[in-house]
Model the fold of this input.
Amino acid sequence: ATNIDMASSALENAMLNLETMIRIDANGGTTSATLYTVVTGGEAKIRFPAKNYTATKEGHTFLGWNTDKNATVGSTTTLTVPVGATVYAIFAANTYSVKFYNTVTKETVKNETVKHGENATAPEVPQIMKNDADTHYVFKGWNKAFTNIKEDVTVNTIYEAVAHNFELTSSVAPTCNATGTNVYTCTDCGYTKTET
Done:
C-alpha cells in the first residue's frame, strides 16, 4: 500500500471513531444529564435516545425532546439530530379551573381555565343586591387572590349586609274614607316600603 492509501485509511478510521457531544438543555426545567456523547461513524446526523432522558418543570408536563427550543411537541423515543446539536426539553403548562361563585345568589358566575402561574380575570358582579326589609348587600370583593394560579380554586364573593337608606318618594294624604300612605325607597338598592 502506498503512503497515500495508508493516510486515507487512517483518516477513514479516525472519522468512524469520531465522538461528538449532544448538549441537553432542560429549557427552564431540570434534568439529570447535560451531555450525550456518541461515536458518529462519520455520519452528519445521529440518533439521540430520547427515551433514556427526562426533564421536570414545576406546573408543567414533559412532552419530550426537540432541537427547536420553542417547539410544542417533543420525542420520547428516538430523535434524529445533526452532529453537535442541542436538544431541548419541551413542556406544556398545566391548566387549572378557577370558579367564581356568588354566595348570595348561590350560583357560579364564571368558570375560567388558566395556565400554571397565570392570573384569572374576575367577572362583573352586582355591586348592590336586595336582601330583605331592613338591609341590602354591598359587594366588598373576593375571598381570595386569583393570581399566580397553581391549582383548581373556587373564589367566593364577599357581600356585607347594610341597612337601607330610605327616602320618602311619594305620599298620599289621608281622607275621610282612606288612610294616608307614605312610600319610602332605598336610595342604594331601590327597595321600597309603604307605611300607612
Summary: Residues 13 and 41 are 9 Å apart (CA to CA). The mean pLDDT is 90. The radius of gyration is 36 Å.
